[in-house]
Amino acid sequence: MIRISEASLVFLTISLGFATSASAQSKSTRDTSLSPATSSQNSKAANSATTVPADAESETDKREAKRDTEKRDADKRETDKRAGKIARDNAQRHYKAGVKYGRANLFRQALQSFEQAIAYDPEFADAYDGLGHANFDLGRYNEAVAAFEQEIKLNPQAVDAYTSLGQAYAKLKEEKQSSKSPISSVVTEPAGLLTSPTSEPNEASLENGNAEKDLTRLYKIGAGDVLDIRIPGNMTEDSTLFTVSSSGQVEHPILGHAVKVLGLTTEEISDLVGAELKRRSIAGGANPEVGVRDYNSHTILVSGLVKEPGTKILRREAIPLYVVLADAQPLPEASLVTVISHQTVKSRTIEIADAEQTSMLVRPGDVVSVQPALKQFFYIGGEVKSPGELPFRRGLSLTQAILSAGGLTPRGGKVQLTRGSAEGFLTLQEFKLKEINKGKVPDPLIEPGDRITVLP
After folding, report:
1. Which CATH superfamily is domain 377-455 in?
2. Does domain 79-175 fall into CATH 1.25.40.10?
3. Predicted local distance difference test score (pLDDT) of residue 102
4. Rounded to an integer, what distance in angstroms lies between the CA atom of residue 301 and that of residue 327?
5. How many CB atoms lie within 10 A of CB 254?
6. Which ranges in 293-420 belong to alpha helices (H)?
């Protein structure tokens, strides 16, 4: 009986073990079956807690994009600023090199330096000025005109550029005149009182013309000019600028004594100082670089009917009058210009519209006065309908003068023209109006003060 009880107890224990295992498995199955739902709910809760509205996210992106753009723009501006400064510094460096070459008369090297300066800074007005002068000194006058015009465009207040532009135009005009083929035949004009014979130029006049032409290319140093003298190998920080004294001398510390430079060109001064350096075994005997820093000695005075009157400074020994007029800008009512020569103390009055006469050269010390047109008259009498004093105008012919007096009376047919000479004597010439009207003789031009008498 004890054995049965033990067997029953063993069976009961095993049965309880199976039951416990089944219960555990059942619970595990329930937990497993519930976990997806629970996980889904937890996930939804988590998502609902961390999700940001779409509008807020868009605004944030926009702000970040704007900050990035502003930063890029700021970086670009800073880069452009640095690049611009580097370009300007390079332009200044090449410009200074060009000035140095120009003072040494190395015009081709100067030209290249100024072109490089402009390549770095296309709005560098001073570089265009240097480029214009370099082209001018090389005889490239078209290029000089273009450079000076660009300088004036960038800096309308550059007064010297107007003078330089006028000089370049003058050279172009000279080139055109010299390029014309020489005239081999003599052009004859009808002989008479109103025509004067022309003489062929002799050797003296040709030499004088060449001498005047040379004056437009030279500049001789005068009192008050400031020279820039650079001794080769001189590394001191002393100034290289020296003012010419009233006695025409400059004192350079290396030379130890005053050097007379009055009336010399910069090339001549370079040779003079170079010879002294060679004599004293300084700088290896090389000639110094000599240039004019400030032009002060060569002046003229412009007055009258101009927009820009006052003292004008010349950078040559002489310049054409039309260059002076272009710089001074005559007013609309201006018609005549009087030039009082400093050398001869004589005056000459010409018409502004006369291109040939305004080609005359103006020299330092001259006085230029721009004036309105003078009232001039001629006098007509005899067989005309309205005799008397009538106003004169340039280009008035004899027949036009008669018409301005109302025309001929029925008896008019022959004309006497009386004119005063420079010595005060009267000269007389007769014309038949029928011959003039038929084209057999020329219709002569009259001059101010002429006396016209129409006879039957």
Report:
1. Outer membrane lipoprotein wza domain like (3.10.560.10)
2. yes
3. 78
4. 12
5. 16
6. 321-328, 398-404
Which tokens sit at 133? 């002068």
Distance in angstroms (rounded) separating the CA atoms of residues 131 and 147: 6
What lies within 8 Å, CB to CB, of 231 at 6+ separation is 252, 254, 277, 282, 283, 288
Which stretch of DSSP H or E encloses residue 455?
A: strand 451-455
Nearest to 391 by CA among 404, 378, 407, 406: 378
Give the pLDDT confidence score for residue 301 in this predicted structure. Answer: 94
Identity of the amino acid at 13: T
The pTM score is 0.45
pLDDT at residue number 371: 93
Q: Are 262 and 223 in contact (CB under 8 A)?
A: yes
Give the type of residue at 205: S
Q: Which CATH class is domain 299-372?
A: alpha beta
If you search the block for the tokens 């753009």, which residue do you land on? 69
Q: H helices then E strands: how many in the chain? A: 11, 17
Q: Which residue has the tokens 């140095």?
A: 100
The radius of gyration computed from the CA coordinates of the chain, to the nearest angstrom, equals 48
Q: Count Cα atoms within 13 angstroms, Cβ side, for 305.
A: 14
Q: What is the pLDDT of residues 47-78, one digit of tens each?
A: 444 454 555 567 787 788 888 888 888 878 88
Query: How does pLDDT run across 202-221, given as a tens digit for each residue?
Result: 444 334 545 555 788 899 99
User: 217 is written with which tokens?
Assistant: 């290319």
The segments of the chain whose pLDDT lies below 50 read 1-4, 7, 9-50, 52, 180-207, 209
Instruction: Region of 186 please: left (phi>0), alpha (psi -120 to 50) or beta.
Output: beta
